[in-house]
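Q: Start with the shorter request: fold the first protein.
A: Done. Sequence, then structure:
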Amino acid sequence: MHPHPDEKSLLVKARQGDAPALEELYRHYVEAVYRYMFYRTGDTMVAEDLTAEVFASMLTSITRYRDYGVPFGAWLFRIARARLADYWRYAKRREKYQLPLEEELENIQGFASPEAHFQHGALLDALQYLTPAELEVILLRFGSGLSNQEIALVVRSNANAVKSKVFRALKKLRGILERKEEFNQEEGLI
């Protein structure tokens, strides 16, 4: 996720309570925050609620935001991580990370062929085998479009460590998918 091209001036205005500046920041980041929440919870309504909570927190604390080496996007995703942690801590259902439901798969554009649909479903299934830390870096990198540097700021690490975590998680995913494909071929499922 790249910063808004006019982010510095928007932040100055937003800290002064300028509604159009706040709205522009919201529009720029809302989709990435929602995707992060959705892939972490697997529930559209929960993801919408948590996304709303993130931006409500942003509104109440924007006056305290200062760019001390942590870009606004990273600061916003720190809020998102905190809201998500609160959700899991207080949720009545303590299920392990769910992935999108079949109806959500149908909403994804570009999956016209059954093979492509199957491959996407296999990927979503494979994500369940990642550790929470691996899942987080994969979702921040590919689900929300953050760079390794931005992820490092969100998870309070360094870019090289994040790059390594992403590489290892992708290698693990590749292995899981290959084993599943071999199994499916042996069983005559593909």
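Q: Next, the second protein, separately.
A: Sequence, then structure:
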Amino acid sequence: MAERKLGMTVDLKRCIGCQTCAVACRMQNNVPMGMLWNRVLTDGGEHLDRARGTYPYLTKSWLPLACQHCENAPCVKVCPVGATYKREEDGLVLIDYDKCIGCRYCMAACPYNVRVFNWKEPVRQPGHDYGDAKVPKRRKGIVEKCSFCVERVHQGAEPMCVLCCPAKARKFGDLNDPDSEVSTLIRRRRTKQLLEDKGTRPQVYYLL
């Protein structure tokens, strides 16, 4: 077992659907136009802020969604060239963009639909790169996804989506440390992991 197992909690009672996490992720990681590594789904429909139910009995809730950095990651198993891999030292699931051949097996294997593919040369507005200079460039014909802002993690910082969330719905830390904030929240709160029946064992826990 890895010394550390980095993971995240997302408090669904605190999430206000503001999309700040999605925008912060895009800016930090130089994500091209037309792509998102981090999405916020609306419970009740495909449109932003769609309510669930029938008037006047309406509710609103949201589900932030990105790579789950699974312990038993199916994307790692199917990658024929080892481009998608799981780091032993902290459990992060990452992509070596220089190795990726664009076969998209990982996209097919992921039950969460959280990877995107560069079908064409990346387009950014304004017409230049932005975000962290340490984030690797991605070319046409490869897959990309959330990395838990691994460049920031290397510096001892938290992912940008955690830092920027105005509702403080996200927490990040070591799931193997019983005294970490994420471990404490998981013990104290009722939680769920997405698609638990798939046996992927996500390192993202949703607080209910």
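Q: Describe the second briefly.
A: The two ends are 28 Å apart (CA to CA). The chain has one domain: 6-207.
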